[in-house]
Request: fold
Amino acid sequence: MKIPTMLSEIDALPSVQLGDYVLKFELDDLTPFSQDIAFKELRETPENRENGIRELRNLLSQETNLTVPLDNDDWLIRFLRPTKYYYESAFELIKRYYAFKIKHYEIYNGLKPSKEENIFKANILSVFPNRDQLGRRILLLELGKKWNHKEVTLDEVFKGVVLFLEAAMLEPETQVNGAVVIFDMDGLSLHQAWQFTPPFAKRIVDWLQDSVPLRIKAIHVINQPKVFNMVFALFKPFLREKLRNRIVFHGTDRDSLHSYIAPKCLPKEYDGTIELPRVSGNEWYGLLLKCDQEYETINNYGYLKERDAKDAKSKKNKK
Reply:
């Protein structure tokens, strides 16, 4: 069975039953709301779509050292939407996306949900089952008192976020409307703050600014203690103005958070009113696990010669 936007063939659309609620990826066509956003903000018209796909495919066909699913229109659109159908920009984004995977080979090598159970079992990383009032996915990271840094490393957290956003890239609604991230830093300790390093900070910022084919519309930091200032100081030198302006610090001011994300879209712990069940990291893991084959297929593309060279070097070093 071939599902539009997915690269692999799977038996059925993955889903997990949570009481009366079914957790699944939203792979349907755009809603009228999102069609309007796509037209107004992304220049999405039948003409731009057709031209963008054709010209991007032509550019990629000339990049002989890069292996990509050239014949898959839905895959090409993943990169055309965040670049507003400027196909040259989409082409550069694709190259950066795969170059980042080579540069950080140790993170991306064989990355798939079945290898990353630990981060999801820790339940510090989750996505709300609902979207915000603007149709955006909401990703939550709780890196304070809920995070045992001796059991879950920051590299594992990063891998979990990558897995989530790769899944989000499959969803047409998310391709158009984007995503927002909430960092709940309640209880962050000095020992936890020491886990953050300049190389880690640079990797995260480079990834967000240059290598993610998804519209990250805002990053909300809440419940942060004073020690968080030390953490943010590591990230600040690498931030360009566009991303820096999208980072908002709320502390414990829920009215401030609500001015960006409506209370009807937030759970009770953030003074929200939504009644959907909170989806645990473990429950998301169950859904992602059903897509292991999709991640394996994703890993079959990119700068394969460079990756194989990294593979060979890694095996040699282990002997």
